[in-house]
Amino acid sequence: MFKTILMKDLSALFKQKSVILTLLMPALIIIAIGIIPLFLESSAEPFQVHYLMEDEGIEGLNLGSTIMDELKILFNNDNNIELVELADIDAFYAADNAFWLPANFTEIANATRIATYYMIISDSNIQANPIMTGQVQGTIDAVITRELLPVQPPEINAQQLFPDEQLTEAGVAKNRGNVGFGLAYIAFLILIMGGSILKITGFSAERESGMMELLLTSVHKRHYLILSKLITGISYGFASIMSYIVGLGVVLLVSSIVSSESTNFIASLVPEDIITPLSIFAVILMFVSLSFMSMNILLFFQLSMGREAGDRFGGTATTMLSILFYMTSLVDPLEESPIQVVNPYYWPFKLALNMIFKEDLLRSLLYAFMIISFSIILLKKQTTAIEKEKVLFE
After folding, report:
1. Model confidence pTM above 0.70
2. Which domain-ending residue is among 161, 187, 213?
3. pLDDT digits (tens, 9 = 90+) for 175-232
4. CA distance 214 to 229
5. 60 & 129 share domain
6. How far is CA 29 from CA 22, 26, 127, 157, 283, in A?
7. 271 SS3 class
């Protein structure tokens, strides 16, 4: 019986004009990605530049003090950037975006003409590189060059440091930010694709055609109806994502043929030692979990409310949760803020990231528990609602 119901839903789905949505949606999402940051800049919290200034200087010269004076002037009228002083070296290593001028910074730079300072730059915050390597490093280098130039142009070394947890087994940076941004985009794409099939694969079509009553009277195990819809929704999402991947593959192939200077785009974003069976499994698990949860929420509203209200509120709820997930993950996909943690769409995304980087086992188990519990609760409520035929025939 279940196989018959599933084949009916799949057949009805792929007879629709859903191919148009499948082809157009990735382009629309790319446009949205270009617009969303414009709204984030005005509402985001100030970007914090942490600093540890220990430079004691020498008689007549203190590069550290001069650097800090110019940075304070630079950021004085910028409400989007905030300078935060650190207490000690341990605080520096724990900071996300910071620079450290050692106690003998001026002394060594003046004596050897080699100025070495240290920076920690987040690879997951979209603002980090332009601020830390642009404004901050640019100011530091300009001050050093100006103050030491009359004798001899100095050699300046800005050494970026990485905590051990941000390094792979081979000792290179994990590029956590690139992986996080890419994964957040894939997750958002999955969610938008899933939300576009509300009226195609939900119960709305059966209600409008009068098939709902026939299904309820002929199918004794009502949860078969729900599971069939969930699997159909996941299948549609998979087809949509595959079309995007195929399109991306074509673009990469053509670019490699046309341009002799082209590089492996994927390899430049993701280190080779991160592409493992575990990471591939994590992405697949995220895809299935997000698709399943999205369809679960849609069906919950459809079955718990009347025909029009269910479609309207279900579509609105999934769309808002999807946009909220992406907007809160766009600035820093590795952050775990309260507004992210309460969003059920964030749980599979964070679980996948933790699996890829082999981090936070306890939190990963907690996210897995939350995903399973949330899905079971929604399934039970749907099964209860579908038994109440008056809800289905308003």
Report:
1. no
2. 161
3. 677 778 778 877 887 777 665 555 555 666 666 666 666 666 666 666 677 777 777 7
4. 16
5. yes
6. 12, 5, 21, 40, 20
7. coil
